[in-house]
Amino acid sequence: MKTKKHYNGGMMRKALCTLLFVLCLGTSSCTWSVEDERLSKANQVIVQSKRQKIEAEIATLKDHPWAGEYYFGDGRGANASLTLAPKNGFTVTWHGCLGLYDQNYGTVDWDGDTIRLSFTFEIQRGYIGRYASEYRPIRWGERVYLIPSNEIIAFCNAINSRNEPRDWVHGDFFLRWGDEKKEAKGKPELPEEFMPYLLDKPVDATIVSVESIREGSARSIIESDPDRGEKIATVIINKGRKDGLLPGMELYVIRPDNIYRTVKLLKVEETQSVGEFSYDFPWEHGDSFRTPTPEAGWQLSTHPSWRRNADEPSTSEPATVILLRFSR
Q: Is the whole model's pTM more than 0.90, yes or no?
């Protein structure tokens, strides 16, 4: 099924999609083999048959708190579809730039708060097969999201940055198919302890000092630059708890321009906070593409500049993006 959507200010998404394609070409986890049992034709038949049973069960349920079909992804290198119901369990598939990367299925347990998935095949670590085993169903107006139990703060960050509620199918969290067209009124129904993470207005801040820089775990995949690797800078910013900030929140760099990275807060005091900024990743090859070392004076915000630009009315003719619902 194809739909069209007009979109302006898509620099961030374009950069992320390009990055995913590069990673797909550069990592063996993006390839598949007929000898891999989970990607075999036989397993595809099993997954398809199980999905049909789940869909039939969903059709008999009315106003169920979480049963349904869900999607997250960017429309290119990352497209995960999850179908689940209480009796017949779940199936999940992952499609990307090179085809089918992963498929899995299993049983579902629900305790009234948390959905627990028991996978037939071991969950693959890393970017491909990035599924959680526990999800919290989050209702927001007429929408239903499935949020990993350990990523509720990340979901709050997406709301603070205006990436949610999204108005097209693509996004970083499982959203029930079709719900992107539905209104998200008020605030999402989060567990009470996470409600303070939802900001009423953006928080703008400034880096006042860079305390230290250390090596991160990601290393270069580029043969000509084998010693390149991620760096992590510990920074102090001039806003704190009195401004609404909490540990785990993320602030985007808005000055200098064209730096699509965040400072993640580790420790928050009344008037200042300590955070980490990761940069100089292995795939950032070439001086024109590398993220620079952070400096005092950099400006940050919970509402990124590229998102602000996308939210502003445009005087130019919008580009047309074709959205394709991947085969599940």
A: no
State what percent of residues in the chain have pLDDT above 70.
74
CB 291 within 8 A of CB 281: yes
Between 2.60.120, 2.40.30, 2.30.30, 3.90.930, what CATH number should domain 204-302 receive?
2.40.30
As a whole number of Å, the end-to-end CA separation of the chain is: 12
Helix, strand or coil, per DSSP, at residue 261? coil
Tell me the per-residue pLDDT of 200-216, one tens digit each, with 9 for 90 and over: 999 999 999 999 999 88
Q: Alpha-carbon dihedral of residues 83, 85, 91, 92, nearest 10 degrees?
A: 40
Domain layout of the chain by residue ranges: 2-196, 204-302
- The owner of tokens 């300590």 is 274
**Of 83-92, 95-104, 236-245, where does mean pLDDT reach its minimum?**
95-104
Contact 283, 23 (CB under 8 A): yes
The set of long-range contacts for 21-28, using a CB threshold of 8 Å and a minimum separation of 24, is 21/76, 21/77, 21/97, 22/283, 23/77, 23/127, 23/283, 24/77, 24/96, 24/97, 24/98, 26/221, 26/283, 27/221
Quick one: which of 236, 209, 234, 215 has its CA closest to 281?
215
- Work out whether strand 79-85 and strand 262-268 pair parallel, antiparallel, or are unpaired: unpaired
